[in-house]
C-alpha cells in the first residue's frame, strides 16, 4: 500500500487541513513554502494521468474549499502536480501541491 493510502487509512498521522468523503488535504511533512498543502483523492490513482475527468471535477470543487480555508484566494498561490519520472513525482498517489503564504517565485530553468 502506498504512503498516502496509509495516511488515508490513519496508519500514518497527518495534519489535516480539510477532509470530506472522497478527498483529503494535509500539510506537507517537508514544506517548501510557508503554506504547503497536499490534496489527494482518498481512492488511489497513480497520477493525474489516470484520474477520471468526473472525479477531477469533484476534486476541483474540493480544492476550491481548501483554498478558501487557507485564506490564500486573494494573495494567490501555486498549484502543481508532478507526474512520473521526468515530472519528479516521488509518491505514486495523485496529489496536488498548494504553495503559498508568501511569493512563491518564478518557474525558471
Ligand atoms: P512529489 O515529489 O511526489 O510530487 O511530492 C511528494 C510530497 O510528499 C513531498 O513534498 C513530501 O515532502 C511529501 N511527503 C512524503 N511523505 C510524506 C508523509 O508521510 N507525510 C506528509 N505529510 N507528506 C509527505
Ligand atoms: Zn495510494
From TrEMBL:
| Domain called HIT: residue spans | 3-109
Active site positions, chain numbering: 95
- Location of the motif Histidine triad motif: 93-97
Picking any one GO molecular function of the record gives: catalytic activity
Gene3D superfamilies named among the record's database cross-references: HIT-like
- Do you know which InterPro entries this protein is assigned to? Histidine_triad_CS, Histidine_triad_HIT, HIT-like, HIT-like_sf
PANTHER family per the UniProt record, alphabetical: HISTIDINE TRIAD HIT PROTEIN (PTHR23089)
| Record protein name field | Histidine triad nucleotide-binding protein
Amino acid at each position: 500500500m502506498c504512503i498516502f493510502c496509509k495516511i488515508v487509512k490513519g496508519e500514518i498521522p497527518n495534519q489535516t487541513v480539510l477532509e470530506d468523503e472522497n478527498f483529503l488535504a494535509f500539510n506537507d511533512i517537508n514544506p517548501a513554502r510557508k503554506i504547503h498543502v497536499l490534496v489527494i483523492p482518498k481512492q488511489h490513482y497513480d497520477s493525474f494521468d489516470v484520474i477520471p475527468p468526473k472525479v477531477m471535477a469533484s476534486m476541483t470543487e474540493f480544492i476550491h474549499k481548501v483554498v478558501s480555508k487557507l485564506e490564500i484566494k486573494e494573495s494567490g498561490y501555486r498549484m502543481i502536480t508532478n507526474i512520473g519520472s521526468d515530472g519528479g513525482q516521488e509518491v505514486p498517489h495523485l496529489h496536488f501541491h498548494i504553495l503559498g503564504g508568501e511569493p512563491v517565485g518564478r518557474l525558471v530553468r
